[in-house]
Specification:
Pfam families: Alpha-amylase
Distance between the termini: 140 Å
Number of helices: 23
CATH architecture of the largest domain: Alpha-Beta Barrel
Helix content: 25-40%
Oligomer: single chain
Organism: Diploptera punctata (Pacific beetle cockroach)
Keywords: Membrane, Transmembrane, Transmembrane helix
InterPro entries: GH, GH13_cat_dom
Number of strands: 22
Number of domains: 3
Radius of gyration: 55 Å
CATH topology of the largest domain: TIM Barrel
Protein name: Glycosyl hydrolase family 13 catalytic domain-containing protein
Length: about 675
């Protein structure tokens, strides 16, 4: 077969008129080998490495020029051999090279014998351009080094007229199909050949993933996340409070109710009120809107309740009121209804013991103190249902009594047993003691030690008489100790003696005195207590006590009601003088609960009460006191009433105005920024 090689512009064109396939067996004829078809593009060639095996050492591609040599260096002799090929004309042809263990002459002879005519479906022109010089070929001696070197393929570009490139690699065979056209004057265009091998799908892990399931999971996951976000936003909006009112502590602005337990409710049918009866009447406190119950005079005394003031011990209750388990029952029932408990602690009977130092008190009164500690230990052992049953934590020990004064030990004892606050009754009689300030600070420190948080804070309170008994200049340290350590200052309102004008002056003076700093105590108002006559007995009209309570509940501060004033309970009247020996307790008659007979409710009809029943404007069952519940709820919801004033730029701005008319009518107006105002008129 004739072959011609034409050189022009440094390019070599090779055309073979026939195609030859390698024979499996030289004696059995020609059997075409299988061919795999790959579409070579730039992207595939750049991503898939060439995985073909190395050609044989003797293999030489007839088209390799300018550095495209395989398995051996191209010498000038080989280049001359290539240039000696005759130029072939005609249509596009196929060149095939087979590696055989024969000489180069035998290879070309076999190729001539096995040539067969091949007619492609479409005639296209495909050429190859080599941009490397012969000098660069010698630097890469092997085909593997050249095939694996990336710079050999960087200059190759995709020709626009190349239709297909088929590359099949099996054993040592390499097929290269070049289709070209004899256009442009028979001069092949400057183009190149791209070689690429497709990588197996097993090498890409993501091709085995379940993409439909992943897409469904992603879609529904996104939808679920959006729905969850919408639900969270709706929940937050629904949980927002309807009103943004300023907060206040449980003892600030809430309604107090003072109780003398011996006259409130008899449960054990002995004619004297007790803790069990008090605990069973907690629904009544809730119906009035009471938030704090103040227990007055519960301690051991000779001939209690007639001589309730003669207190013998500050840690032992009167036996007629019940045991400590009964006391804890009443406290727990009140706490279940969110009602706090404040205990009156009379300190005036123990002024001598308080004024002495702990060591002096132990020496001079060692016998009495030992007896006192023994009594407290006995109480702790008998109170099986109270908190003091724990020997290790709640039992009052001898060393506590020796290291602390009697009041400190009593405060600690009652706070351990569920009391939320202590009213230091008779503190005004202790102001002349040199250690007064240190005692007050010590008691406040004890109260703070039992405060769990702001909502369960333990408090101390005293009377306004304590401040009135001290000189503001000479006793400034003592005054500051009271104002800095007390939470409530009890002020008694005189609504009878001085008329409405005198009442206004008293209120303004107290508020001005206790509102100089935000940290000063709040005012605790009261009109009737255990030391004065009944409010109804002082007023000219029987139902005036209910109007007086409504007026008190409109004042800034903390209002308080003495038991029975809400139903117009009067003093016991001893017209014959048969009860002159107990005239000091005529204002403590039993409570009226039923409309049928006075005794029904407090005790059974066949039981005589410890003190005869007195008259009353109404009774509990009549329900006329429900107006207190309405005002209490209004007070709890409106900062215009429960707030003590407004502090702005370290300056106190009162939120009340009191006006009087002819010394008979008093008008109270309450206001707060951006809130409703309220007015009450009392005559």
């Amino acid at each position: 077969m004739e072959m011609s090689v034409s050189k022009e512009n440094g390019l070599i064109g090779t055309i073979l008129p026939k195609v030859c396939y390698p024979s499996v067996d030289a004696t059995n004829g020609l059997v075409p080998s299988p061919v795999s078809e790959f579409l070579a593009d730039e992207e595939a060639a750049s991503t898939c490495p060439l995985l073909t095996p190395s050609p044989p050492a003797e293999f030489e591609h007839p088209l390799s020029t300018n550095g495209m040599a395989y398995e051996r260096q191209i010498s000038p002799t080989s280049i001359d051999e290539l240039t000696s090929l005759p130029t072939l004309n005609g249509n596009g042809t196929l060149a095939f090279v087979n590696d055989m263990p024969t000489s180069q002459h035998n290879q070309s002879h076999n190729i001539q014998e096995s040539q067969q005519e091949f007619t492609p479906k479409s005639s296209v022109q495909s050429v190859m351009e080599s941009s490397s010089s012969s000098s660069s070929v010698t630097q890469e001696p092997t085909v593997c080094a050249q095939l694996l070197s990336s710079h050999h393929y960087q200059h190759l570009t995709k020709a626009s007229d190349v239709d297909q490139v088929f590359l099949y690699t099996s054993q040592i065979y390499i097929y290269v199909y070049i289709f070209s056209k004899a256009e442009n004057g028979g001069k092949p265009p400057l183009t190149g050949i791209q070689l690429a091998v497709r990588k197996s799908p097993d090498d890409f892990c993501f091709m085995d993933w379940n993409w439909p399931l992943i897409r469904k999971f992603s879609f529904w996951g996104s939808i679920s996340l959006m729905v969850a976000c919408v639900c969270i936003v709706i929940t937050l909006i629904a949980g927002l409070p309807n009103k943004c009112n300023p907060v206040h502590a449980w003892w600030q602005g809430n309604l107090f109710y003072e109780v003398f337990p011996g006259s409130f409710m008899d449960d054990n049918l002995d004619g004297i009120g007790d803790f069990r009866g008090l605990g069973r009447q907690t629904p009544y406190f809730s119906s009035l809107g009471i938030k704090v119950v103040r227990l007055n005079s519960i301690f051991l005394a000779e001939h209690y309740p007639e001589n309730y003031e003669n207190v013998l011990n500050l840690t032992e209750i009167a036996p007629v009121l019940g045991h400590f388990k009964d006391f804890n029952f009443a406290v727990s029932m009140l706490h279940k209804r969110n009602i706090s408990v404040v205990l009156d602690l009379p300190i005036s009977p123990f002024l001598k013991e308080i004024s002495k130092t702990p060591n002096e008190n132990l020496k001079t009164n060692d016998h009495d103190r030992n007896n006192w500690v023994a009594v407290m230990d006995l109480i702790a052992e008998n109170g099986s249902e109270s908190q003091i049953t724990d020997h290790n934590t709640n039992r009052i020990k001898r060393k506590d009594a020796e290291s602390e004064n009697m009041i400190s030990t009593a405060i600690r004892f009652w706070l351990k047993n569920g009391v939320d606050g202590i009213y230091l009754k008779g503190l005004e009689y202790l102001v002349d003691e040199p250690n007064f300030s240190s005692l007050v600070r010590e008691w406040k420190k004890i109260a703070k030690s039992y405060s769990e948080d702001w909502e369960h804070e333990k408090i101390l309170m005293c009377s306004m008489e304590v401040l009135n008994a001290m000189d503001p200049e000479d006793d400034s340290r003592k005054v500051n100790a009271v104002l800095s350590n007390m939470d409530l200052i009890d002020v008694k309102l005189d609504i009878v003696s001085n008329g409405t004008k005198g009442l206004k002056q008293q209120i303004d003076k107290a508020i001005k005195y206790l509102s100089r700093k935000p940290s000063y105590p709040w005012i605790h108002w009261h009109m009737g207590d255990i030391h004065s006559k009944r409010l109804t007995s002082q007023l000219p009209i029987a139902n005036a006590s209910l109007a007086a309570i409504m007026f008190e509940m409109m004042l800034p501060g903390t209002p308080s009601i003495f038991y029975g004033d809400e139903i117009g309970l009067e003093d016991f009247k001893d017209s014959d003088g048969e009860r002159e020996d107990i005239s000091h307790i005529h204002h403590l008659p039993p409570m009226h609960w039923s409309t049928n007979t006075p005794s029904v409710g407090f005790t059974q009809p066949h039981i005589l009460p410890w003190l005869p029943f007195s008259a009353a404007r109404t009774d509990v069952e009549a329900g006329e006191q429900n107006i207190i519940h309405i005002i209490s709820r209004l007070r709890a919801e409106s900062p215009s009433i429960y707030m003590n004033g407004v502090w702005k730029d370290n300056e106190y701005i009162p939120n009340y105005v009191i006006r009087t008319v002819d010394n008979d009518i008093v008008i109270v107006e309450r206001s707060y920024p951006r809130r409703h105002s309220f007015v009450i008129v009392t005559t």
